[in-house]
Design goal:
With 425 residues, the chain is α/β, with parallel strands linked by helices. Helix content is 32%, strand content 21%. It contains twelve helices and 20 strands. The chain has a ten-stranded mixed sheet with strand order 9-7-5-2-10-1-11-15-19-20, sandwiched between helices. Strands 14, 16, 17 and 18 form a four-stranded mixed sheet that branches. A two-stranded antiparallel sheet has the order 3-4. The protein is globular. The protein binds guanosine-5'-diphosphate (GDP). Guanosine-5'-diphosphate (GDP) binds next to helix 1 and strand 3. The site of guanosine-5'-diphosphate (GDP) has 22 residues, from helix 1 and strand 3.
Length: 425
């Protein structure tokens, strides 16, 4: 049976959570494969409105198994808070419908501290981190100095392992940053309070996914952030510390040998970006305010106002390519309804030369957007459910994007609610 990945082709916040929530009913398993609680998916459904940071967006479907893979980094305190928020809204979360990889790495309070301390040290040159400890914990992973979730099942082993790591961590905290050290007992208590609750969910997710595949079950891989934040292919160093690419999905879930059959690349009808780094089509002033307000562009994890601007087709085309997108889900078309005319960036001018190719990161800060302007439709499209019923100019806008990105648009989202979608464009 076919596997599918739902991934972002831009900077993140494209509306992936909403797309996973929509299609999850066709899948038996929804698996997150990278990142931590540094980004958030917003999902609106019959249970209410939720900002999911760690839990896969399939968690609302009772028959769906949600998986947090080995590529994910888990702050036990944050995960418990998220589970509590959902269970108190009536969502059932049990070891039958959620499993956590024994190889997922745990985020500790000192990772959050180090994130904040380093951003403070950098002052104006900071990366715009969400300070959830994600970069520090991934660096520790590659230094082989982290605790895996599975160690919660072996407390004596965990205690000795953590003792060694903490000795090293406290040196960094106190001698590099002049911050307070952590006591081993303090961290063990914290782990027991939050990690203890996660024990029943910890499994070898590779075994779970292989068994699901053998039983012809369908797997949906869910990414966080977008292609332009990929550690290898994104706008380095303004990237995340993991890979939000579809090709990483099997590796980050426990089944590296799996093939992703379909990749749904989620793109927003205009561009937004959270945090620092080059953002070529950024608008400022009144235009930006209007678009930000219309789109409700405030971060799901931090509430920070997002940077906004016209659709950057150069970046979107690149994002769709590195994601290997089989099709595009274009979200938030309804937000553009107020505009009389809509600019889209088709190419960059860099040091006097025009290019349609996404350049090396160092060149992006010199890039100036070159726009084409398309006519707007200026009427509400949120109730439309068939492509043919969209106003002519909205159809034209969609087709223009499809052409420029070179990938078929299969879904158009015209509202945040599950049903506000046009399928099979
Ligand atoms: P994600 O991280 O990619 O899931 O994206 P976010 O959840 O951060 O941002 C998407 C936001 O847009 C959420 O608040 C969604 O509820 C909302 N949203 C998604 N698709 C649409 C749409 O087509 N129209 C409108 N108006 N809102 C949408």
């Amino acid at each position: 049976m076919a596997n599918c990945a739902i991934v972002g082709v831009n900077w993140g916040d494209e509306g992936k959570g909403r797309m996973v929530d929509l299609v999850a009913e066709h899948y038996d398993v929804v698996a997150r494969y990278q990142g931590g609680n540094n980004a958030g998916h917003t999902v609106i459904n019959e249970y209410g409105k939720f900002a999911l940071h760690l839990l896969p967006s399939g968690i609302f479907r009772p028959d769906v198994l949600s998986v947090l893979g080995n590529g994910v980094v888990i702050d036990p305190e944050a995960l418990c808070a998220e589970m509590d928020a959902l269970t108190s809204a009536g969502v059932s979360i049990t070891p039958e419908n959620l499993c956590i990889s024994d190889r997922a790495v745990l985020v500790f309070p000192y990772h959050r501290d180090l994130d904040a301390l380093e951003e403070a040290r950098l002052k104006d040159a900071c990366y715009g981190s969400t300070k959830r400890g994600i970069a520090p914990v991934y660096s520790d992973k590659y230094q082989k100095k982290t605790i895996m979730a599975g160690e919660l099942l072996y407390p004596a082993y965990l205690k000795e392992h953590l003792r060694g790591i903490l000795e090293w961590k406290n040196l960094t905290l106190t001698k590099v940053y002049g911050a307070k050290p952590y006591a081993l007992d303090e961290l063990l208590d914290w782990l027991e309070t939050y990690g203890g609750r996660l024990r029943p969910f910890i499994r070898d997710t590779g075994a779970v996914l292989r068994a699901a595949t053998a039983a012809d079950k369908r797997i949906l891989f869910e990414a966080q952030l977008g292609a332009l934040r990929d550690i290898d292919y994104g706008i380095f160093p303004y990237t995340s510390s993991s890979s939000p690419l579809a090709s990483y999905a099997p590796v980050g879930c426990g089944m590296p040998e799996a093939k992703v059959d379909t990749v749904i690349g989620v793109a927003k009808a205009y561009s937004t970006c959270v945090g620092e780094g080059p953002f070529v089509t950024e608008w400022f002033g009144e235009d930006a305010e209007k678009l930000r307000e219309a789109g409700g562009e405030y971060g799901a994890a931090t509430g920070r106002p997002r940077r906004v601007g016209p659709l950057d087709l150069v970046a979107t085309r690149y994002g769709a390519k590195v994601q290997g997108a089989s099709c595009i889900a274009l979200t938030k078309l309804d937000i553009l309804s107020y505009m009389e005319s809509i600019p889209v960036c088709t190419r960059y001018e860099i040091d006097g030369r025009e290019t349609t190719e996404f350049p090396f990161p160092a060149l992006l800060s010199h890039a100036k957007p070159v726009y084409e302007t398309l006519p707007g439709w200026q009427c509400d499209v949120s109730g439309v459910r068939r492509f043919a019923d969209l106003p002519q100019n909205a159809q034209r806008y969609v087709k223009y994007i499809e052409n420029a990105v070179g990938c078929p648009i299969r879904y158009i989202s015209v509202g945040a609610e599950r049903q506000a979608i046009i399928e099979e464009v």
